[in-house]
Amino acid sequence: MSADVAATRREAGVGPVPGLVLGCDYNPEQWSPEVWHEDVALMREAGVSLVAVNVFGWSDVEPEPGRYEFERLDAVLDLLHAHGIGVNLGTGTASPPPWLSTQHPEILPMAADGTRRHPGGRQAWCPSSPVFRERAVALAEQVARRYGSHPAVRLWHVSNELGCHNAHCWCDVSAAAFRDWLRARYGTIEALNSAWGTTFWSQRYGAWDQVGTPRLTVSTPNPTQVLDFQRFSSDELLAHHRAEAEVIRRHSDIPVTTNFMVTAHRRDVDYWQWAPHMDLVANDHYLDHRLPDPLAELAFSADVTRGLAGGRPWMLMEHSTSAVNWQPVNVAKRPGELLRTSLLHLARGADALCFFQWRASAQGAEKFHSAMVPHAGTDTGVWREVVELGATLGRLEEVAGSTVRHDVALVFSFEAWWAADGEGHPSQHVRYLEQVHHWYRALRAAGIGVDVVAPGAPLDGYRLVVVPELFLTRDGDAAAVERLVANGGHALVTYFSGIVDADLRVRLGGYPGAFRDLLGVHVEQFHPLLPGEMLTLDDGGAGSLWAEELRTTTAETRVHATDGPVPGAPVVTRSAHGAGAAWYVATTPDLDATTRLVREVADGAGVRPLPGAGADVDVVRRTDGARSWLFVLNHGSTPVEVEAAGFELVEQQPITALTVPAGAVRVVREEVPR
Ligand code: GAL
């Protein structure tokens, strides 16, 4: 039901505030009212038009069970409104207050080893707890009733990053909810036994009450039980969102959303299932310096979020002006980086750029997290860059509402991620997200823009689909790829794809099961490589992680391995199929070889690279059908020249050729729209 409401609101083009948005989390409860007055004046100086308040407000607005104190929040909302600043209003339910966990310790989540997690941090609640749900929905209702038609409120912010710390709970209440979920999925215990393959290791269930959450056991647990627990946990959190959203909608017509975490370190929520329930898709993203290429991951996250938003403009609900406080080394942004990384989200389809948070906290666990107003105040590089960002957004205003569309689709699946990284697989060194990132990095370095799609999504209009390690493949997922190729499109599928169905049952008869006929290859045995072991490829590249005993059936071999466990084996193949072609890659080629390969495949599919794009230069085009804007973001240390003509918006001047200085961003309204 809520998905229908959400779809109607999205079609109506409901956004939080018209135009481009600069915003932030605002926690005035941490400061005295004198500071609030300085805050709103500074917000106006920076061009802030939307602030998220009351996200962690529970203990403040409901200091005792059922006693609500809204006076402070009233004052904050009125003050913001008086200064023309809109509010992204939190329901305040993200973190239960101490009175709730003291009165009802059963809401505390249980870990897989059966021990309880304690209060003292945040988000310590069991997603299946009826007591927690009831109290949270009651608070959401009070907030919605009071502020449902407050003129400052532009957007509802349910809870916060649902599942960030409490994605799973293994307690008895969760076990009962899991059983209900399983009953709805399978109907009978026999069907569950069949799906889970319980004849293996004497795991056959005789009755529902024998089934539990996959708590820590002494050996490898049942993989399908683990996968179903992932699915269930994601659904439980979504049900929580929906319960709060439903009560809000009774009191307010304002769009409702929650902030997603499409990042490298959170994988517990299937956002393809969630997105249809959002009036507006919002994401939180922080650069992760533990990764080999943090910028490419930022670009990927933005592309995933645009995919989740169905191609429509989306909102960056949180990112940081500089360092975070939760990585081993919290790297501060260099001059220009705040602007460039923010605008990279904008280039890839965001219309709202918000930061966590407005003013750096003086106390608490996040006091060393950067903010728009740093501890050192406004005579700082960070503040000046914040103001510059606000001014730049003013100059870019005309791109609001425009969209990004590419010729290449990349299939990304949260469910396949859960499944692929399970225990007992050929190699624990092959990690789904790393494989996806690897192919994305190569595509980005080759200047080939991609749209990220869910498995099984219709691929009409694309010239090429890239399918990295889609271990779990449903029949419909493979059929969508096959259809594209039959109709003249191209596909590139990588190893350990098409291996199992939705129950994790191996597709027999030779790998890569679901894609075997399309790709024209037959794999007899996997030969995963040891860490550091490399394959020599006869195109000059090197392969790592994986090799296979592979023979071609209808495919031709483009690249062989000359050594390794199967010397002479094909590692890159191409099969003409229908009116198109399907490529298969049976190792992880080094980044250069992968980049060369995606260039060749894209070229064959008729895909043109974006002008000037590369590993250090993001180039993205946004369009509104009548006009187009070319974004060029130079992350490198030398200027880049890009063929472009039109009006450049950052410097506000007509151009016939574009030079983008090191570290700078330029946005050209193109003379000839694309
Ligand atoms: C997010 C969270 C914020 C803040 C931020 C710090 O995960 O939503 O409340 O903790 O991280 O990076």
Structural overview:
With 674 residues, the protein is an alpha/beta fold. The protein has 3 domains: 20-167 and 238-399, Alpha-Beta Barrel (TIM Barrel), CATH 3.20.20; 408-604, Rossmann fold (3-Layer(aba) Sandwich), CATH 3.40.50; 617-670, Immunoglobulin-like (Sandwich), CATH 2.60.40.1180. It is 31% helix and 18% strand. The strands form 6 sheets. Strands 5-4-3-2-1-9-8-7-6 form a 9-stranded parallel β-sheet. Strands 11-10-12-13-20-19-18 form a 7-stranded mixed β-sheet, sandwiched between helices. Helix 6 packs parallel to helix 9 (223-249) and helix 15 (432-445) crosses helix 18. The longest helix has 27 residues, at 223-249. The radius of gyration is 26 Å and the shape is globular. It starts with a helix and ends with a strand. It binds beta-D-galactopyranose. Beta-D-galactopyranose is lined by residues 160-161, 164, 284, 286, 318, 324, 356, 366, 369. Beta-D-galactopyranose binds next to loops.
